[in-house]
Amino acid sequence: MKERNERHIEWHASGITREDREHLNGHQSCILWLTGLSGSGKSTVAAAIEKELFKQRSRAYILDGDNLRHGINGDLGFGPEERSENIRRIGEIAKLLADAGIITIVAAISPYRQDRDKVRASCTPGDFIEVYVQCTMRECERRDPKGLYKKTRTGEIKYFTGISAPYEPRLQAELVLKTDERTVADSVSEVIAFIQRRQLINSSPEEGMDT
Predict the structure, then answer these.
(1) pTM higher than 0.85 for the full model?
(2) pLDDT single digits (tens) 139-154
(3) Which of 29, 38, 40, 110 is catalytic?
(4) Is 8 domain-assigned?
């Protein structure tokens, strides 16, 4: 059914290009894909990155894995195939936002290397920046902000990454943030410095601002 329907679907390009939108914004867009165990600090770091970019007058938006499961991905469970579909959908949304000229910050466990690589391969080269939010299992479980580790240990949760389901870190991510060793501010500074080196945003917050 899917193949038959795709024959009648055509992509409609906008009359406004991504480059037009980036020029208006004063910066380029990209996808910052934060991946890591539950409790590693993905959402916390993502929110801090978004806030810093906002201060610098850069247009950014977070796609948080939990938030998307309240709506767009609300029909998906946590088995391997559904996890893969979850990441595919997030990737498609992220690409649309990047095309709109927005620095898109994804915060999702995204446990399977193959799923993240598929999203990377579907993106414009250079758009996908994988940020491995690295934290020891012991520290993640100590934090347990949502009580998920405890529920897994008692059998309330069947599929849980790192315990009853695998997590596969990328062999070589663009960035590795060791959140069990460094502060949130340190992690944000590292990400901002990286995208500045890529010349995606200005190296100085004041550049490009009205005076």
Answers:
(1) yes
(2) 998 998 888 888 888 8
(3) 110
(4) no
